[in-house]
Specification:
Length: 287
């Protein structure tokens, strides 16, 4: 058996994304925008920002392109990832600028809070369509572009934004997020299946599982769960998530540093999920 080589080649470029092309769905705000910022600052040449609202995409790109020291640029591509037509439109628009994509961050997502007995079918369907079906469609439709430059030494990357709600019990009770929790569990397992399917095509698929981050999506849930200070005090790290926390994990998975990570689901919650034992979010009812 060959001796294990302990040498780390070209360490300074281990976390570099120089020249890479990335697509971020749901990239106009929140976690997606933080991730897009990291990709650009790590050297990506193009980062396509997509969400349903054109004005939001354009505003995000204006912010990103004003970042100091970047050599690449953010490009606005409004599209609705919840529909196949929307995903195909996104792929077609990206293809006008590049023949290949190196990183896809499937980040677009939605949630809905309502008690079990009155939980609307339409709301459940909307969440599942975007959070699961939409993610599958994005990965499938971008697969040919992801394969263009992919190799054993430098695979292309798919990163799915899941949630700790998909690993444990999400919010139940009067603001139950049943569809959201189910969708995130489903998309994590989808990611594991696609990691095995696409690995031989030199594409890795991993999921990130954020806990509480003070974004627009989580604002209402934070308030009904006791507010930011109470949630932070219950966390082993005594704080909520911040942009650097998402940026660091996304950069790790997208760069050479994460080239041999495939099928993983990485919690980004300061250990809160494990400290609770029963895997329930703070302030939530067990009834």
């Amino acid at each position: 058996m060959a001796e294990y080589d302990t040498h780390i080649s070209d360490f300074p470029s281990l976390f570099s994304l120089k020249g890479k092309v990335a697509v971020v769905t749901g990239g106009s705000r929140g976690l997606g925008l933080s991730a897009a910022s990291a990709l650009l600052q790590a050297g990506a040449s193009k980062v396509f920002i997509s969400s349903r609202k054109a004005s939001a995409c354009e505003s995000a790109c204006k912010t990103l392109n004003a970042l100091p020291g970047i050599g690449g640029r953010a490009i606005s591509v409004p599209a609705d990832s919840a529909t196949l037509a929307g995903v195909q439109h996104l792929v077609a628009e990206v293809a006008k600028h590049t023949a290949h994509v190196d990183v896809v961050l499937a980040n677009a997502g939605a949630t809905w809070g309502e008690r079990f007995d009155t939980h609307p079918d339409a709301a459940f369907a909307k969440v599942m369509d975007l959070n699961v079906r939409g993610v599958f469609n994005v990965i499938r439709e971008f697969a040919p572009m992801l394969e263009k430059r992919a190799s054993v030494a430098d695979p292309s990357r798919v990163i799915i934004t899941a949630s700790v709600a998909g690993l444990g019990i999400g919010t139940i009770g009067k603001q139950g997020t049943y569809g959201y929790s189910a969708s995130k569990a489903a998309v994590i397992h989808l990611g594991r299946n696609l990691a095995v399917e696409l690995g031989p095509r030199h594409i890795t698929v991993n999921s990130i599982c954020p806990g509480f981050f003070p974004t627009k999506m989580t604002h209402g849930l934070l308030e009904i769960s006791g507010g930011q200070d109470e949630i932070a005090s219950a966390n082993p790290m005594k704080r909520l998530g911040k942009p650097d926390d998402i940026a660091g994990v996304v950069l790790y998975l997208a760069s050479r540093a994460g080239a041999h990570v495939n099928g993983a689901a990485i919690e980004i919650d300061g250990g809160a999920m494990w400290s609770r034992g029963e895997l329930m979010a703070p302030g939530e009812s067990k009834l």
